[in-house]
Amino acid sequence: MRKKIVAGNWKMNLTLGQAEQLINDILQAGLRLKDGQEVVMATPFPYLLKAKSLLKNTPGFYLGAQNSASEKSGAYTGEVSAEMLQSVGVDYVILGHSERREYFQESNATLAKKIDLALANGLKPIFCCGEPLEVRKAETQNEYVAKQLEESLYHLTEEQLKNVVIAYEPIWAIGTGLTASAAQAQDMHAFIRAQIAAKYGREAALRTSILYGGSAKPSNAEELFACPDVDGGLIGGASLVAADFLAIIQKLG
Ligand code: PGA
Q1: pLDDT in tens, the chain (253 residues)
Q2: Protein residue whose Cα sits closest to atom 2 of ligand 1
Q3: Which annotated residues bind substrate (predicted)?
Q4: How deeply is 109 buried, as exposed, middle or buried, from its count of CB atoms within 10 A (0-12, 13-18, 19+)?
Q5: For the chain, what is the domain count?
Q6: The whole model's pTM is what?
Q7: Could you tell me which of 240, 249, 250 has the C-alpha nearest to residue 22?
Q8: Which domain holds residue 166?
Q9: Any residues with Cβ below 6 Å from ligand 1, and which?
Q10: Residue 242 domain flag
């Protein structure tokens, strides 16, 4: 059975003190995750080591980074490599978030390189895809997302794909308060799974966790997570508030 995951994407928020407080508040709630459920906290780079030390004894809780470099090592000032992330105990890395694509010009081809390096260093990529509003309005979102999958993931082997999580994040729903309806999320998730099945076979598709992201919150998480092809969420704003993040995790069922 595929994993159900709630991943918090903190983006560029919080100081170290606030980060520690948030993790402690979440852990102290003493949530017991069910088999096959995972929680990921994707913190800013400077907090990874501290976060690892806080999270490491809690079963089901994993550490994530929000990006990693498209090159292995060397003269790339300001970049952080997949190998470095692995060496500090990172488990997951968010790749291809729409903010990275938009503000840092990350292309599908660049992301394919990042995915390869992440996997080569034992990290599990959370690969983000999703369409902008004008694409949704033109009703060409399926073609748009299919191309993102094809250009960044389809060079992988079936074995490699086992370590990839996909996050569907319609850009028009990120941080806007607009959420895709459960039906819109389910339609796209089913489409993504069908694409994976066409390329890698049904078993591989059934094994792949596909998360929804975009203004997910306690009030809508239950309906979203109840969709048969929605395997959890990638949570931005609500992951910064312990009570909200905990409530969303509990909606995994
Ligand atoms: P949001 O962000 O939950 O604040 O909309 C989600 C994301 O960008 O991953």
Answers
A1: 899 999 999 999 999 999 999 999 999 999 999 999 999 999 999 999 999 999 999 999 999 999 999 999 999 999 999 999 999 999 999 999 999 999 999 999 999 999 999 999 999 999 999 999 999 999 999 999 999 999 999 999 999 999 999 999 999 998 888 888 999 999 999 999 999 999 999 999 999 999 999 999 999 999 999 999 999 999 999 999 999 999 999 999 8
A2: 236
A3: 9-11, 175, 215, 236-237
A4: exposed
A5: 1
A6: 0.98
A7: 240
A8: 43-52+60-250
A9: 9, 169, 174-175, 213-216, 234-238
A10: yes
